[in-house]
Fold this protein.
Amino acid sequence: MSDDLLTQIDARDLILLQARIANPTASSRELSEILDEEYDISLSHNHVNTLLREMETEGLFRKTVVPRRTLFKHYVFRIAFHYPNFKDHWEDCYEALIEDPHVLMFFNADDKYRWQLITQFRSTGQMDEWVTDFFERHGAVIDEFETTSVHNLHKFKTDAAIFDDLISETEEGQKYLDERDGE
């Protein structure tokens, strides 16, 4: 989603999204009541349902199932490239990582264009086998590969409160927040 799309989103819709994230199992009727009680936003439960479907279709959010953190062991992988082979091999490596079910998140985080991954496996043995297979298939493009085990995953979620930052960017949104906070 581009920043242009974000500026087109109504503050009321951001508040609805925030309410959905804060109350993931609430019915559209319950969300309608929350909006009315906390923000003085009056929407029927049918309209709430329609707005949520539209936002999901527009890519504003995705419904995601996050398994209990004890089901998997998590690892952070950092990959630096062997640049002489990068041009010929990076796309196959990239696509393999994008499609791999063990890769939870894949990103760049530095100016050296190293790829970083957050992965999940049932066991350390399974992770070791994956790394060996990965090197066999994509070793020509790899210069360095670092692995860090995530021993205790303490938090893995988006808190609804983060939307206050977005909502407060407009005058209308700030009024809704003031209503909620009783100001």
Observations:
- The chain has eight helices and four strands.
- The beta strands are 73-81, 103-108, 115-121, 142-150.
- The mean pLDDT is 89.
